[in-house]
Specification:
This protein is α/β, with parallel strands linked by helices. It has a single domain, classed as Rossmann fold (3-Layer(aba) Sandwich), CATH 3.40.50.300. The strands form two sheets. Strands 6-7-8-3-9-10 form a six-stranded mixed beta sheet, sandwiched between helices. Strands 2-1-4-5 form a four-stranded antiparallel beta sheet, with helices on one face. Strand 4 and strand 5 form a beta hairpin. Helix 3 packs parallel to helix 5. The chain is globular and about 50 Å long. 41% of the residues are buried. The structure holds adenosine-5'-triphosphate. Adenosine-5'-triphosphate binds next to strand 2 and helix 1. Pfam families: ABC_tran. Belongs to the ABC transporter superfamily. Keywords: ATP-binding, Nucleotide-binding, Transport.
């Protein structure tokens, strides 16, 4: 069953054509890594999936709902599709536990006791159950990003979008966040679309690697073909050799 389907999608910012004729299908449970040079449209593409950016032409079906249709309820989409950003934006004046319980309480009206239990389970899943009573500023950047992931998981989404989740972190914290993401990716019930330059993550857990440049998808391969064979697109080959040697 497909979770995300782009059919001939076009996206413009004013006159600027940011996404050109995007066709991409992601099945439920798949992990897809999206790569490409700066400005190629990766953030734009990922942000269309939960309606943070609207598309102008084509069809975008997420969890069975058509996002091109203005009548589609975006709140329903966002309940099922979580997003983790580069900057985690936790509420500074609330404890870690409160940060995680807030959205399920307000959006899902989840009963308090159950909400707390799920929040603690998710904290445990990201290895930070002992941090529950602390304030965000008492945690490192890597820990805060793991809290942001737990916060998304607490909504029990069907899909998670990650937009460069480790690129604002100090190097020694990156692996802790990637390990949490790998654990989620191995859970076959979760669909993941991840913008990252961390090719170790892609090699280990991605089902597919998608390469974008100038708003076009130029390559969409299984990870085996992408890493062990050769991407057929010349720009994808060049990009790959650059990010792997650096
Ligand atoms: N709100 C906006 N208004 C106008 N142009 C935009 C807007 N957001 C992005 N763009 C342009 O769209 C293009 C794609 O940007 P996008 O951020 O999606 O690329 P990206 O591949 O994620 O880049 P990076 O790796 O640097 O984050 C860029 O040329 C960018 O300048």
């Amino acid at each position: 069953m497909s979770m995300i389907e782009f059919h001939n999608v076009q996206k413009y910012y004013g006159d600027f054509h940011a996404l050109h004729d995007i066709n991409l299908t992601i099945d439920a449970g798949e992990t897809v890594v999206l790569i490409g040079p700066s400005g190629s449209g990766k953030s734009t593409l990922i942000r269309t999936v939960n309606g943070l950016e609207r598309i102008q032409e084509g069809q975008l079906i997420v969890n069975g709902q058509d996002l091109a249709n203005r009548k589609t309820d975006m709140n329903r989409i966002r309940k099922n599709v979580g997003m983790v950003f580069q900057h985690f934006n936790l509420y500074a004046n609330k404890t870690i536990l409160e940060n995680i319980m807030l959205a399920p309480r307000l959006v899902l009206k989840r009963p308090e006791e159950e909400n707390k239990k799920i929040a603690m389970d998710m904290l445990d899943r990201v290895g930070l159950a002992d941090q529950a009573p602390k304030m965000p500023a008492q945690l490192s950047g890597g820990q805060q990003q793991r809290i942001a992931i737990a916060r998304s998981l607490a909504m029990r989404p069907k899909a998670l979008l990650f937009d460069e989740p480790t690129s604002a972190l100090d190097p020694e914290m990156i692996d802790d966040v990637l390990n949490v993401m790998k654990d989620i990716a191995r859970d076959s019930s979760m669909t993941m679309l991840v913008v990252t330059h961390e090719m170790g993550f892609a090699r280990e857990v991605a089902n597919r690697v998608v390469f974008m440049a100038d708003g076009h998808i130029l390559e969409d391969d299984t990870k085996e073909k992408f890493f062990d064979g050769q991407p057929s697109n010349e720009r994808a080959r060049q990009f790959l050799s650059k990010i792997i040697t650096h």
